[in-house]
Amino acid sequence: MIQDQKSKKGAVTGLLFIAIVLLLVVLLENLSAILPAGSVPAVLMPTSQLFTVLKKGAVYSLVAVSMNLLNGFTGLFSLGQAGFMLLGAYTYAILTVPVSAKDTVYYLYGGSAVNFSLPDLFGGVDTPAGLILGVLLAILLGGCVAALFAYLIGLPVLRLKSDYLAIATLGFAEIIRAIFQWQPLGPVTNGANMITQIPTFNNFNITDANGTVILRLSTFFPFLIAIICIVVIVMLINSSYGRAFKAIREDEIAAEAMGINLAKHKMLSFCISSFFAGVGGALFAMFVNNAQAKVYTSTMTYEILLIVVIGGIGSISGSCLATFLYVACAEWWLRFLDSATTFASPTAPNRIAFMVIFAVVVIGGSALLIHRERRGSNQVWKQTLVGLVAILLLGWLAWFAATGELTLPLLRTGFRMVAFSIIIMVVVLFFRQGMLGDKEFSDILFARRRNAGKEATK
Amino acid sequence: MNTENILHLDHVTMQFGGVVAVNDLSVDVNKGQIVALIGPNGAGKTTAFNCITGVYEPTNGLVSFCGEPMVRNHPQGKMARGYLGEHGDLYTARFSVEDPEAKAAAEAQQDPAVKAQMQADYDKALEERRSKELERDPLAFTDKVLSPTPDKITQLGIARTFQNIRLFSALTVFENVLIAKHMRAKQNVFSATFRMNKAEEQRMREEAMALLEEQNLAHLKDEVAGSLPYGLQRHLEIARALATQPKLLLLDEPAAGMNPQETQELTEFIHKIRSEYDLSILMIEHHMDLVMQISELIYVLDFGKLIARGTPSEIQNNPRVIEAYLGVADDAEN
Fold first, then answer.
1. Handedness of CA A151, A157, A158, A162 (dihedral sign)
2. In order along chain A (458 residues), what is the average pLDDT of each group of 10 residues?
């Protein structure tokens, strides 16, 4: 996905990179089967958090990149992503519930109004053709429905600018969510209940006649779809239309004076972004095994916005990187924040890990702050304050180390989100550019090499 | 000498609430001419530009480009009443092809034969005035509004620069010029994304590169536009406007912030691009040296009204212009 489109070499490097990523994913997934039984680390077991993170990361990175196309490259601040994901997820779910399962899924409404299922049209979920064609077509249609709605919403809404556009799209997402939970639509949307029994990522695992898995592809599938979509977005951004989008972001008036039709290009960007958000929504439905309107709240949009901001607005690779970091933290690494933790044994590895991380964060953070203040103004009291707080925190750590046993205060359900709020505040205050700014990972990589080359020639 | 008309402003009025920013302005630019629009601050020069380029829809008037009506708004009836207020005559006067005096004289006539003859004469004269009006503006006597968006006007062949430079400052010099090529590219979003028409993309790049080379900006092509020095940014903005392949170039204060040396270079530069790209130029400028040296025709605006029109020497000696720029001599001094 990272490519310098000016040179063929860049495209080849990008394709190679993608192939390696996909291969690694397949390998990682199947390591538990390849390695001798008993020596498989817990992380690599198919039920491990690692694969949840990878699957959700793939889905979210697609949605984040689609949001970045709109927010970062076209300069339209829209907060409707969850709404478009919902449209994609529902379209996918409604079209793929097997005919045989409709009565049980829609039991409150005495069956579904949609009396066909795309996989069944091609021979059923259990046949490869039915699965692949049916699912792909449903995902595609999910994207199309989202794009269609985006077009209809865009007609009035895209006349708005900046914050007003954000408010309008946010309102749209909330309205869509309410409509899909509306009782009279029950025969189609199953009301406020979830639509279950849809084909999921696990359906893509290849099994033998007995039902034992031969080759796992459940993580490979979302990666493949997400990567294809992201490549298309990158190609769009590097095309003439992508440049027009960037021109609109830079200066609408100048872009218009250069002959760029604002209404048309904004609508294009909005629809394309929504299309991929819809595809992302369909994948998300596959990931959570169901479609339920109450999941697609504005919180979900904010999660994605957070990812885009952390990754760097206007950076595709930044969004991808930030997605995996965020999802890993949210689903895995920072889970411990949600439950009270007691470090009893002085030699427990997680106790030592906690102490080291805590010390590094405090010392590093305070050093950074003091350095900034020194560069900025000569307000000694600020430096002193930061220093005092750091010393207090380190003192607490020392006391903790001496007494040997401690239940960390504050940790309880929901504290993870507090940590995230603090992270986003720190990012917005100190690293407004995000991880990569508006650069791509490849830019940084190649720039370093180029600089190294320059120095070598000197 | 070719005197083909390129741009024609016919009684253009732009009213913002009670403020008449441009008041009944008529301007002509012929092919190959360099025309300057001058006037004190706040005279409505930039507003006139914005009416030509479609940023504003004029409240009254017609703008023709190469003989074709391009922007037009002649509100009548209900629509005009929306604007009227204290400036009502701006909207009604132009359409009174009726001649009330002649009409009254015809009606007052006692002798039926003479009266019929006078009436017929009056009707004929009226019809003549009507057809003359229609010849000038084919849409006259209708409420039809032509107000294309700025991008449409750029596609017709009018390019502009801005008073305060508006480059795509985070993009490179090359991208800035390349973006101007987008509107004439024959490709849709699918063929562009999936590289189905590589020749077209190649052509755009080559044209943009050729333009940068002509403008001696090629060595800067990978620089970020916002990091260029001021003079080069001005130059790049003009180059970017040229990339849209215009017939008419509107320059909004091209010499703003330039020293005499740079202004001199700009004069030569404007002459050069006019002949090289077969352009007509309409510009707003405050540097009188530049204006007097370069322009073939000068229009002077004050408080939205056209106060003078003529060659540089005529304008220099026009008492109304001097008055507008320097103020009226105080009565007490006399």
1. negative
2. 52 90 91 80 83 94 96 92 95 92 88 86 86 94 97 92 90 94 89 90 86 86 95 93 94 93 94 97 95 91 91 90 90 77 68 80 82 66 82 84 69 79 79 77 68 47
What's the residue count for chain A? 458
Cβ atoms of A44 and A311 closer than 8 Å? no
Beta strands in A106-234 (DSSP E): 206-207, 213-215
- CA dist., res. A157 & res. A176, Å (int): 15
Judging by beta carbons within 10 Å of its beta carbon (0-12, 13-18, 19+), is residue A403 exposed, middle or buried?
exposed
Q: How far apart are CA B108 and CA B136, in angstroms?
A: 33
- For strands B34-38 and B297-302, give the pairing: parallel
Residue with tokens 């849409």: B139
Fill in the amino acid letter for A306. Answer: L
**Phi, psi torsion values for B29, nearest 5 degrees:** -125, 120
Asked if B192 reaches chain A (Cβ–Cβ under 8 Å), the answer is: yes
The length of chain B in residues reads 334
Helix axes A162-180, A81-96, angle to 10 degrees: 30
First to last CA, chain B: 48
B-chain residues within 8 Å CB-CB of A235?
Answer: 193-195
Nearest beta carbon to residue A254 from set B168, B192, B201: B168
For residue A251, the chain B residues in CB contact (below 8 A) are 166-169
Residue A455's pLDDT is: 47
- Spell out the domain ranges in chain B: 100-136, 167-245
Terminal-residue alpha carbon distance, chain A: 33
H-type alpha helices, B137-255: 150-156, 173-180, 189-193, 198-214, 230-242
Distance of alpha carbon A230 from alpha carbon A62, whole angstroms: 6
Of A202, A222, A196, nearest to A139 by C-alpha is A222
Tell if the CB–CB gap between B149 and A262 is shorter than 8 Å: yes
Question: What does the pLDDT look like over B171-199, one tens digit per residue?
Answer: 999 999 999 999 988 888 888 888 888 88
Q: Does B170 touch chain A (CB under 8 A)?
A: yes
pLDDT tens column, A237-261: 999 999 999 999 999 999 999 999 9
Can you tell me whether residue B70 is helix, strand or coil?
strand
Strand B248-252 to B280-284 pairing = parallel
Report the alpha-carbon distance of residue B303 to residue B291 in Å, rounded.
20
Q: With an 8 Å Cβ cutoff, are B53 and A232 in contact?
A: no
Q: Higher-confidence residue: B321 or B333?
A: B321
3-state secondary structure of B245: coil
Partners of residue B249 on adjacent β-strands: B159, B281
Q: Cβ distance B33 to B296 under 8 Å?
A: yes
Token pair belonging to A415: 């504290």
Distance from CA of B76 to the nearest CA of A (A): 28
Quote the CA–CA distance of B280 and B296 in Å, as a whole number.
11
Spell out which residues of chain B touch residue A438, defining contact as CB-CB under 8 Å: 170
Is the interface score ipTM higher than 0.95? no
User: Residue A97 in contact with residue A90, Cβ under 8 Å?
Assistant: no
Q: What pLDDT, on a 0 to 100 scale, did the predictor assign at position B93?
A: 60
Q: Is B72 helix (H, G, I), strand (E, B) or coil?
A: strand
- pLDDT for the residue A3: 34
